[in-house]
Amino acid sequence: MSFNQINAINLGATPDEIRAAVKKVYTDSLHLRVQDAGHLEGNVAFTYLDTFDPDQDGLAQLKAHYVRGGIADSVVKSRLEECLQTLLAPIRERRERFAQDRSHIMRLLKEGTCNAREVVARTTDEVKDAFGLRYF
After folding, report:
1. Which of the residues 45, 49, 89, 109 could staple to 53 if both were Cys, CB 3.0 to 4.6 A apart?
2. How far apart are CA 89 and CA 42, in angstroms?
3. Which residue in 43, 54, 42 sits closest to 76, CA to CA?
4. φ, ψ for residue 29 (rounded to 5)?
5. CA nearest 53: which of 84, 27, 18?
6. What is the pLDDT of residue 66?
7. Mean pLDDT score of the chain, rounded to an integer?
8. What is the pLDDT of residues 19-67, one digit of tens each?
9. Architecture of domain 3-100
10. Average pLDDT score over residue span 1-20
11. What is the dihedral of CA 59, 61, 64, 65, to 10 degrees?
12. How far apart are CA 58 and CA 45, in angstroms?
């Protein structure tokens, strides 16, 4: 699994799978040496950090440092991995708890299906009324 191949990560991914995926994330093909100035445009690692990093002020400082040079792509990827590990850990734990109780999952699916059917029925009635499609 990698971000480059599917641009997604499984919510149940293990910490090792997340680490491996982050290592494959595209950064900047022109940033060959630590001292080289980096580019943010097209840099997938920063795109993900823009979305998932809760410390946007710290991220702005990291971006400025990256653009002027003197910071390795591995530092950026390390920060991204930390953000994703922190974000996904409670989701993964909750998912594992749910997986242990299949009857609870089935109840949730049945309730969701019933709720969805009610919404669909109301919406269908509204559409029929709006288009004058009620034939009694």
Report:
1. 49
2. 28
3. 43
4. -65, -15
5. 84
6. 97
7. 91
8. 999 999 999 999 999 999 999 999 999 999 999 999 999 999 999 999 9
9. Orthogonal Bundle (1.10)
10. 74
11. -110
12. 15
